[in-house]
Amino acid sequence: MNSNPALRETVTLDKQSATALNAGPGLLIGLAPGDRPVTLPDGSRHVLVASGSGGGTTTVLRSLAAQAIARGARTDFLDITYGEHRWAEGLPGVRCLGDVAAIHDYLLLAAADLNHRAPAPAESHWGSRRVLVVEELARLADALRRYWLDTRPETQLDEAPGVEALSILLTSGRAYGWTVLAGDTGGVVPRRGPVHHRHFPTRVLGYGSRLLWRQLAAGQSSPPREPVTGRFHLFADRTSTPLQALYLTEAQARATASSPSPGAAQWGSA
User: Which of 9, 18, 31, 167 is the most exposed place for a label (fewest CB within 10 A)?
Assistant: First the structure.
C-alpha cells in the first residue's frame, strides 16, 4: 500500500483499494491517512451518512451497498428522490422502491415481520443480514407523513404508521439481523420524534452546516469546506477518523455487487 501519510485526493478502484476491498469481511468506507482501510465490521450498527447537498452521501451509500450485496446480504433500497440506486435493479436479493405508497406498505410489513423472527447474533456476517439503504432519511419521513395525511385524513394517530415502522426497524431491527444505511443531505437530522440521529451510533460526516456537526459530531468543530470531493470523517465509539471515501461509478458498483470477490477483477475499469 502507498506509504504516503496524507489523505488521497480520490479512492477509486485501483490496485490499492481493490486489495482493501478483499482484505476482510468488513465493508470498505474509504482510506485513512497512509492508505489505511476504514471499514464497517460484521454486525455493524446502523450507519448515517450525512453532508451538505452534493457532498457525496449517495456515493458512500452506493459503495457500501454494493459490497454488502456481494457478500450475500439481502438489500432493499428506499429512494424517493431521483432513482439514485437504479444501478442495483434486477440484482439477486435486491429490491428498489421509489413510490411512497409502496415504501409505506413495505415498512409496515417489515416491522411486523420482526415478531416472527428469532434474534440474530450481534456480530453476524453480512451475508446473513438484511440491509436497508435509505436515501434522504428526513425527506422520506416527511413524505410518509404527508402520504398518511393525504390518504387517511380522519386519523387520530400522533405519528404516521410508516414513520413508526421505520423507527421500529431502527430501534429493534439490528437484534433481528437488520442494518440500516441511511443518507441525508438536508443539513439537519431531527433530534426528536420516532426517527432521529441517536438511532445511528456510527456516522460518516462530510462537509455540512455547523448545526449538522454540532448535532452529529459529539462537540467536534465543523471543519472548513474541503476542496476535495469525498472527504469524510467517521465517528464511532467516541473516535473520529478522517478518510477519503471509496468512489464507485454505477457500473463499478453493479460489477462489485455481482462479484463473489469485490474489487478483484473490475478495478481496471476505473
Answer: 9
